[in-house]
Every structure is written in C-alpha cells, then in structure tokens.
C-alpha cells in the first residue's frame, strides 16, 4: 500500500543519508519519524546502520539503534556493524557497539572476526580495545588464520607485537601449515622482528 511504499522510499533516503551524510542525524531523525524502514538494504546491500558504522559516526549509529536497527545486520560480504567499525579503525565506535551487545565472535564471509579485520588492517587501537573487551585471540578464518597470522601476513608489526604480548599463540598454523613467520613471508620488518625472538620459526 501507499504507506509501505512511503516507508520504503524514506528508508532508501535513510540509507543514502547514513552513507553520504553520516553527520546529518537531524535528517535521519526526521526520516525515522516518517516511519522510514530502518532495516532496508540499499542497492549495495547495506542498511543505514552498516553505512553509519562504516563511516564511523557514533551519533548516527546511536540514532539508528534507538530506532530499533538490527545490531547484527550483515552486508553482502557478511560484515556486521562491529566488523565495519573495526575495519575502519574507530575504537570508540567499536567500544560503543560492543557495550550495546554486538557479537565480537561474528564472522564475515571470509570467516574473519572484528579482531582479525582490525589486525590485518593495522588498526592498532581497535585491536587493543577488542583485546581489552575479551575478543577471542585464536579464532580462525576460512584459511585457518588467526588474528596474529593475518597481521603478520599484512606486515603489521605493531599489531603483531601487541597480539604476542596479549598471549596469542605464536605456533599457530594456517591451512597451508605456515606459522607466523611463514605468513610474514617477504614482510621484512615483521620477519626481522620475529627472528629477534627465540623459538619463532
């Protein structure tokens, strides 16, 4: 009916606002008052909350959650708002979503948790935040990589050091049997860092 059609149209505007004007919470609030569909997926498969999380805007995220947005919504890559925030490197938003009850064990289509995504992208403060919140260090993605292996493979020296200090398993192996040093491969700085520590092969 016409009411549903209007809610759909307003929902599309809401997704667009969250994606392209994430600081404009007033527009989002107006659209929500007009019964915009807060769970509508845009053409790229993202809900307004996923867009806002990727943009790293806490007020917009809070506004959408207050309107009942699904905290565990997923985009086409299987990413939740928490995974999007972790990839973006916004530790304050990561902490906010976690305190709202976001699943820190959620995995995207590649099997990556928020911690793995942050580690591979070198988001040191997000990694630190997730570790403090109790994120699982030894979770595995589809290639059997842990956060430590992902960080090593991406050449993220500081993240490797932090995860090692947090007690990450240094002898973990991926699906190809590679340890952290093997995953580091041609990442010279990581290799040098690891070989300075005894027993890491």
Layout of helices and strands:
Blueprint: H1 2-20, H2 25-33, H3 48-55, H4 58-66, H5 81-88, H6 91-99, H7 114-120, H8 124-132, H9 147-153, H10 157-165, H11 180-184, H12 188-195
Helix pairs in contact: 1-2, 1-3, 3-4, 3-5, 5-6, 5-7, 6-8, 7-8, 7-9, 8-10, 9-10
InterPro entries: Ankyrin_rpt (IPR002110), Ankyrin_rpt-contain_sf (IPR036770)
ANK repeats: 44-76, 77-109, 110-142, 143-175
Pfam families: Ank (PF00023), Ank_2 (PF12796)
Brief rundown of the structure:
This protein has twelve helices and no strands. The chain has 201 residues and is mostly helical. It has two domains: 1-70, Serine Threonine Protein Phosphatase 5, Tetratricopeptide repeat, CATH 1.25.40.20; 78-201, Serine Threonine Protein Phosphatase 5, Tetratricopeptide repeat (Alpha Horseshoe), CATH 1.25.40.20.
Describe, in plain words, how this protein is organized in 3D.
By secondary structure, this protein is mainly alpha-helical. It has two domains: about 1-70, Ankyrin repeat-containing domain (Serine Threonine Protein Phosphatase 5, Tetratricopeptide repeat, Alpha Horseshoe); about 80-200, Serine Threonine Protein Phosphatase 5, Tetratricopeptide repeat (Alpha Horseshoe), CATH 1.25.40. The protein is built from twelve helices and no strands. The chain is elongated. The protein starts with a helix and ends in a 6-residue tail after the last helix.
């Amino acid at each position: 009916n016409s009411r549903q059609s209007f809610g759909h149209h307003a929902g599309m505007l809401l997704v667009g606002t969250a994606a392209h004007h994430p600081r404009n919470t007033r527009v989002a609030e107006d659209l929500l008052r007009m019964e915009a569909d807060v769970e509508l997926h845009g053409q790229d498969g993202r809900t307004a909350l996923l867009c806002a999380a990727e943009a790293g805007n806490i007020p917009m995220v809070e506004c959408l959650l207050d309107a009942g947005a699904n905290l565990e919504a997923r985009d086409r890559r299987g990413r939740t708002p928490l995974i999007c925030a972790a990839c973006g490197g916004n530790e304050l938003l990561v902490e906010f979503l976690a305190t709202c009850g976001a699943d820190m064990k959620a995995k995207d289509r590649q099997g990556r948790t928020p911690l793995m995504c942050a580690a591979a992208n070198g988001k040191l403060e997000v990694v630190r935040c997730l570790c403090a919140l109790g994120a699982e260090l030894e979770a595995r993605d589809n290639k059997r990589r842990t956060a430590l292996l992902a960080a090593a493979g991406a050449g993220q020296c500081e993240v490797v050091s932090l995860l090692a200090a947090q007690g990450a398993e240094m002898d973990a192996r991926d699906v190809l049997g590679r340890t952290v040093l093997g995953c580091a491969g041609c990442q010279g700085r990581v290799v040098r860092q690891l070989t300075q520590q005894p027993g890491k092969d």
